[in-house]
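Incident review: delayed structure delivery

Summary: a single-chain prediction request sat in the queue longer than the usual turnaround. Root cause was a stuck worker, restarted by the on-call engineer. No data loss occurred. The affected request and its eventual output are reproduced below so the record is complete for anyone auditing the incident later.

Affected input:
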Amino acid sequence: MPIDRHVDVLVVGGGPAGSTAATQLAKQGYDVLLVDKQHHPRETVGESLLPSAWKYFDLLGVTDAVVAHGFIRKAGGIVAWGDQLSQIAFRDFEYTRPGLHVERDALDALLLRHAAASGARVEEGVRADAIMTSEGHNEATLIRQGETGGERVRARLLIDASGQASVMARQLGTRQVNPEYRFIALWGYFADSLYMASGGTVRPFADVRTHPPMTFVSRLGEWGWSWHIPLKEMTSVGLVIPIDDYKRDSGRFATLEAYFLSVCHQAAHLGQLLAGATLVNGGIRVMRDFSYVSDVVAGPGFMITGDAAGFVDPIFSIGVVMALYSGQLSAWTADRLLRQPDRAEAIRAMFAHQMRGRYRLAHTMALPGVESASSEAPGAYFDFFSDAEKQLMWSAASMTTRSANLSRISEGQEPPAKPRRLDLAGIDFNQLALAGN
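Output delivered after worker restart:
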């Protein structure tokens, strides 16, 4: 079968990592083809973004578009962990711009359209199949939705940014589910939920524009947790539950929705925020065994980036920032691989070192107990982050019982800015703050 097209770079996947890589390479004059098996906007769980996302938006040139879209500004986070309620506010660190609560379908579509506007050829509803990789001669068969035949494309370099589909890792047999982190994630969307603003003040949903919300996290059982993220029109609420707990308890309910609502309403404070809310927008979504990593992230002619390379736990809101970073790193690496093919092995090794280091650090931070932490001592990778990012991670980790791992890898250093402890008894769900106050 003849080759139908030749390109410099084939990017598989149009999430934040793929769009970032495609944008930066197209700006440098490379012939980039980005394919995504879905059509955008496509639903993805609503998320909380750290302020560090702005530096990547600046690099991409999409800051004005992100601001114009009007995503909800996030002031910080409040965590209910056991009998302790604590808060971190971004204003207490070096950040000058807010975090965001984003609808991922909208954010991902924005980034993908920007990649196309920057010169990348974007084709949606196209699946990459039968991928063959080699130095400088990567091939893939592209199959469009509704068609049986395919088109063969040859690329000098392939970037797999296929998200949890992990196309290359599955093909290579290198995608490993983390045996220490067997959790299931369930989530849905609510209308008219209350939310927590700074200081633990409870407010009606109508106030989200005038009084920026906090991401609210509540402990579930020994190691599970929930999220509560007010978006522009509704609130994303999710549960991260150990598989064993889920198997033990969910069978007592007639439906998955009944189980989900029961856990939500029994969770500390979360149930009170949802007391007058209604589950909307199609019911419950499920993700199983979502914590994994690929043993291989680069090889002759290819790189694996973003969630295709690994995913840990969204408890510290680092998912999108990690994707933006890895997309930027992929573009930087691809440019050097294409310009300096004689140094390919060293360049790929540097990419793999950076990717593994960040994922290893995220993995260690998210593990429930220090006894389960990686024996590979990822402390050195802590220096990848800015002082503000490190201070924020220290403070966020100390809000849960998972902080022992971070203390170990940071050699006992203490955060300059610590969480503010809130008075549990001071939160009154029956006497709401008045809108506009």
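Verification: Residues 344-366 form the longest helix (23 residues).
Action items: add queue-age alerting; document worker restart procedure.
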